[in-house]
């Protein structure tokens, strides 16, 4: 249970068990787009407002800087491991080689649960945004209520299920085609994000920094608490490392993809 694997075992023996090699169709810019698409997601739009209101105040950008530095350090660790052990297992494989099978399994199970729960939350949020786009104030009107289930957990969201199934079919069809779709969506996403930045600068005021409470109304504690929350907005570089077996020239593409998307996202977010 505590036995560790060597890099050779992780690179060769596991691959022999899994069958045919994956097709290497992705390039470094595909990784950057995938990472930015994952990081500039619901986290930025959902966490920024509540953190600015409840924790950091106008200093929310400092919280993003602190979280960005922490994410950069973590992404550098992922970069080093992904170059030394370029396999699709990601953090699971890195920890199995370093600390043993139990730690690798524990971390892998947590990461899997993280993706399942976060994707489910994002999919349900999609229903709410879609309702708002159609002028529907109550998103539960698009959900089916089951009276036999626990209150608060009894609204089945088939719109979210359809979205997940559609994206899953796209991913199963081809990695390259799904990467192109993600690239197109990321371009629109960045353009929309740029629009928000421009509107924010044009309508913002320096008075927000000198009003009662000032830059950090809750002090350094509020800034640090906000940094811990907005760190969620930087999640995405870990998924890039799992594409190690599907990219061309991993020693070159992986560092550019992991670090590049982290820095690009940090600049846009801050």
UniProtKB/TrEMBL annotation:
Keyword Membrane: yes
Gene3D superfamilies, per the entry: Amino acid/polyamine transporter I (1.20.1740.10)
Record's subcellular location: Membrane
One Pfam match: AA_permease_2
Keyword Ribosomal protein: no
Bilayer topology annotation: Multi-pass membrane protein
Keywords for this protein: Membrane, Transmembrane, Transmembrane helix
GO CC terms in record: plasma membrane
Gene Ontology MF annotations: amino acid transmembrane transporter activity
Superkingdom of the organism of origin: Eukaryota
Name of the molecule in the record: Amino acid/polyamine transporter I
Sequence intervals crossing the membrane: 28-49, 61-81, 93-113, 156-173, 180-201
Family: Belongs to the amino acid-polyamine-organocation (APC) superfamily. Cationic amino acid transporter (CAT) (TC 2.A.3.3) family.
